[in-house]
Design goal:
The protein is mainly alpha-helical and 232 residues long. Helix content is 82%, strand content 0%. Helix 1 runs antiparallel to helix 4 and helix 2 runs antiparallel to helix 3. The relative contact order is 0.13.
Length: 232
């Protein structure tokens, strides 16, 4: 094997390892988000503890990816598609880490909650959580398939996340209006709702980064937004 061939093969291996670690990180974050949504719906405090502990694995993988990216940038000075790949991987891994952090934050809010929360409130959180989980699965599949069409579809679906967030926040407001003693619980539930919405925002970021990776340009237009929250 010539020196040039060896260098090329080594470079390809580095990029493949980077890609493999990003996919692994995505799988961990997907599991973490799913577990946190199941835990909040069931008010499963034991599961919440495991979710909080598992966040460290995601952080470690994110650190590994950052080190790999620095190595590629310094050693290889990538151009064109390879440069887009490293930049996009950095952005995507950052958003994945934030989704993991938000899932952990949701888990932390489970501890003080009672198991007899209003059914409609729980149902609204479940609808929102299921949509965001589906978005994350779809964007990870889009990455694997390098599908710009799927990336755009996910980007547009952020509007639906906003709408379901507002419905859930209204349910929390109704819960509070029935008894002012519910203030602390309502505050925790508002944080949960907003954290799920923010996870959706980061998924939209990933869709944008994926589109940039494939096309070398950004999605045109402003992000679709849902209706404003009205607590009345």
């Amino acid at each position: 094997m010539s020196e040039i061939t060896h260098i090329v093969k080594s470079y390809e291996d580095e990029l493949q390892s980077l890609n493999d670690n990003l996919i692994k990180m995505g799988s961990l974050v997907e599991a973490q988000l799913t577990d946190s949504m199941e835990a909040i719906i069931k008010v499963d405090k034991e599961a919440a503890e495991n979710i909080i502990k598992n966040d460290e694995k995601i952080n470690e993988l994110r650190a590994t990816i950052e080190e790999q990216i620095v190595t590629v940038l310094v050693k290889r000075a990538p151009m064109a598609i390879d440069l887009r790949l490293t930049i996009s991987t950095l952005k995507i891994s950052s958003d994945l880490e934030r989704i993991g952090d938000l899932a952990k934050s949701v888990a932390k809010k489970i501890k003080p909650l009672p198991r007899d929360l209003p059914e409609e409130l729980i149902a609204s959180l479940k609808r929102l959580g299921e949509l965001v989980q589906r978005q994350l699965k779809d964007v990870l599949d889009a990455y694997l398939n390098q599908s710009k069409e799927a990336a755009v579809k996910i980007w547009k679906s952020d509007e639906r996340v906003d709408d379901l967030t507002h419905i859930a926040m209204n349910e929390v407001a109704n819960f509070l209006s029935k008894d002012k003693k519910n203030l602390d619980l309502a505050t925790h539930l508002l944080f949960v709702t907003k954290n799920i919405e923010r996870a959706g925002d980061h998924i939209t970021n990933i869709a944008e980064a994926l589109f940039y990776l494939i096309e070398g340009e950004h999605i045109e237009g402003a992000r679709p937004k849902g209706k404003d929250f009205d607590p009345n």
